[in-house]
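Data deposition worksheet. Section B asks for the primary sequence of the deposited chain exactly as it was used as input, without tags or linkers unless they were present during the calculation. Section C holds the resulting structure in token form. Section D is free text for depositor observations; keep each observation to a single sentence. Incomplete worksheets are returned to the depositor.
Section A, Depositor: J.P.
Section B:
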Amino acid sequence: FASESAWWVADETIQVLGGTGFMTDAGYERVLRDLRIFRIFEGTNDILRLFIALTGLQSLGKDLKPISDAMKNPFANLGTIAPVALDMAKARLGMPDRPSLSWAPSQLKPAASAVEEGTAIFGAGARDLLM
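Section C:
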């Protein structure tokens, strides 16, 4: 993902400089060319994003497998289904369970909080989709 960020910065630099950015004496056009090659050689970042999503959803699918089995006879398996139903209800009310990044350094607490929130929202959405 660093190559995408570097590409964006180089592209913005060229945009700001206008025609001067493409002149060889400035050197920015070479940076832009080199960064394009990095993105090609690294492989597609879209595939990496899909791999990350697949990995997360596979884990959730394994966790939800017992729930799927319990739904075949819900009254007999109420103890298995009730906690998941409660978690889903809390998520729908805007109170999803948040993971804790309490180990994060104090300088990163705001970013860690954003990651916790985003992960909770993603997890709740993924659970809704899989259920």
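Section D:
The chain has a mean pLDDT of 82.
Residues 14 and 21 are 5 Å apart (CA to CA).
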